[in-house]
Amino acid sequence: MSAHQASPLPSQASPPDFALSAALPHAVVGVEVVALPVLPGEDGSAVLLGPGAAELSDLLGIDLYGVLELSEATGRAGEVTSVPVPLGTPDGADLVSVLLVGVGAQRAQDFRRAGAALARATRDRDAVATSIPAIAPDVAVTPFVVGAMLGSFHFHWRSGAPEHRPVARVVLADVPDDLSPVLARAVAVGGAGWRSRLLATVPSNLKNPAWLADQARAIATEHGLELTVWDEKQLAAEGFGGIVGVGQASATPPRLIRLDYAPPKATRRTPTVVIVGKGITFDTGGLSIKPGEAMVNMKRDMTGGAVVLATMAALAAVGCPVRVVGLVAAAENAVGGNALRPGDVVRHFGGRTTEVNNTDAEGRVVLADALAYAVSEIKPAVIVDVATLTGAMKVALGQQVGGFFANDDALADVIARAGEAAGEPLWRFPLSDTYEPKLSSTVADADNAAGGPGAITAALFLQHFVGETPWAHLDIASVGDAPEESYEWTTGPTGFGARALLEWLGSPDPVAAVTG
After folding, report:
1. What number of other Cβ atoms are within 10 A of residue 121's Cβ?
2. Which of 99, 258, 404, 429 could lock 35 by a disulfide, CB 3.0 to 4.6 Å apart?
3. Cα(302)–Cα(291) distance, rounded to whole angstroms?
4. Pairing between strand 446-447 and 353-356?
């Protein structure tokens, strides 16, 4: 078996199934856990305010308010107080525990955290009924469901069963059935976050450019999208010198992946958005090799590509009203006798040239080809790229906030609002032309190793390939990995970005605010 082959990926856990019920949570049949919301009181004490609390207290003969007081519960978002129910109830023999879950100030963020906390507390259970979203269904259903899904995420490649499995079923109790469309959309958004996280987590002895193209093929078949894939010969013949150059040393050659989505009522006048993802399936740094500790998590250097694939898969479910083309520039940045050398020059799609003086600044080199192709051949109204691009972004923002750049203020506002609403916060950085001279090369149109400030000079490099098209560049290197469990974040690759893009692309008119 070669270094680029692996045994098939074991069967992975699926996110929980979700259902609505008009019944109070204690009346839902067959659940092992009932979860009720806890709200902070004005004096700092916790106040139980969840629908069904009084009925459950009477049924169990347990003073739930007293439990909260003894536990010194505050009601902060994600706080969980567990009450064992060893004997169940007369009509609920399966019931083994009651969870009292804090919902804080009842903002979207608080419900998302409550959902994630509930998911962790109910791992390996078959069913839970909760009235947490019933406090404010119009506000709570989507973030709660997304939080519960992503807080359940688990990946394994063990010889036996996974260490844990997500709760199989979550019933949103005391929530009217007319919110079924909201629930379906929430499941699609949470599923996109799950898919992007899963793709980013798969080890690179299985995950390579061809494998990524196979994932795109499965998505296209499942969701009725058009698929085009360029192999290494087609890429070379059509002038994608950046993608070819970065991938040329790998035993698994590069690919350019294109997925096309059109809404049901699309016409010739329906605008097109292009989303571009960096798909470096493993990044050694090339001949400018990374230190070992910096290479450990580089299986997730295709997070931008994972985000694009996951977003494309969910567009129909969120009712995206515009055409969307997803492009993934996929390559493995390997070390070998045929690797790019510092000082080599590549010619991108469209003719612009780059002197590659740092082979570990490869992401911008492959993205440049995809951006140039998009602007030249697709002519979109808006273009957005997503990439774990620069370590400088992590230095600037830590590991909780992503960074972005935009050449259009209206687009920047749209992206920032979408990220905040989706729970994937993004902070805008300046496209300052003060640093443009750093890109100069004595032999090519630009040098890919412009130096600091690294995130800004990388964005300036990419800007040359989009012309006058409204463009945003999401540099998510800061949030590519979660260092520890934290609400909806699970330790490891995050798949950050799909929820923000879907919040934007699933809005009534994603392009109007940008193009006027």
Report:
1. 20
2. 99
3. 19
4. parallel
- C-alpha dihedral (10, 16, 17, 21), degrees to nearest 10: 170
User: 350's torsion region: left (phi>0), alpha (psi -120 to 50) or beta?
Assistant: left
Q: State how beta strands 344-347 and 353-356 pair.
A: antiparallel
Residue 89 phi, psi (nearest 5): -130, 165
What integer pLDDT is reported at residue 4 of this predicted model?
47
**Helix 409-422 / helix 498-505 crossing angle, nearest 10 deg:** 120
**Going from the N-terminus, what domains does the chain have, and what CATH number goes with each?**
17-174 (3.40.220.10), 206-481 (3.40.630.10)
Per-residue pLDDT at 6: 60
Backbone angles phi, psi at 133, to 5 degrees: -70, -15
The answer for 101, left when phi > 0, alpha when psi is -120 to 50, beta otherwise, is beta
Residue carrying structure tokens 């032999």: 443
Contact 508, 323 (CB under 8 A): no
Amino acid at 177: D
Letter for the amino acid at 241? Answer: G
Q: Residue 237: exposed, middle, or buried by beta-carbon count in 10 A (0-12, 13-18, 19+)?
A: exposed
Report helix, strand or coil for 455.
helix
> Quick check: 458 and 358 in contact, CB under 8 A?
no
Which residues make Cβ contacts (< 8 Å) with residue 46, sequence separation at least 6?
A: 38, 39, 40, 68, 69, 73, 74, 75, 102
The pLDDT score that the predictor gives to residue 3 is: 43
Q: Is 295 helix (H, G, I), strand (E, B) or coil?
A: helix
- Sole residue written with tokens 């002519």: 379
CA–CA distance, 16 with 3 (Å, rounded to integer): 35
Residue 181 tokens read as 């469309």
- Helix 454-463 × helix 363-373 angle, to 10°: 30
Cα angle 283, 284, 287 (rounded to 5 degrees) comes to 125
Distance between CA atoms of residues 68 and 489, nearest Å: 27
Which residue, 131, 71, 99, 476, is CA-closest to 277?
476
- Residue 92 is predicted with a pLDDT of 75
Annotate 189-208 with three-state secondary structure. Answer: HHHHHHHHHHHHHCCCCCCC
The rounded distance, in Å, linking the Cα atoms of 389 and 436 is 18
270 alpha carbon, distance to own chain's centre: 26
The residues annotated as belonging to the active site are 290, 364
Could you list the mean pLDDT of each consecutive 10-residue stretch along the chain, which spans 516 residues? 60 95 94 96 77 92 92 94 88 90 96 98 97 97 98 92 93 97 98 98 97 98 98 98 98 98 95 98 98 95 98 98 98 97 98 98 98 98 98 93 97 98 97 97 97 97 98 97 93 96 97 84
Residue pair 370/383 in contact (Cβ under 8 Å)? The answer is no
Task: Look up residue 345 and give its two tokens.
Answer: 């020059």
pLDDT at 5: 54
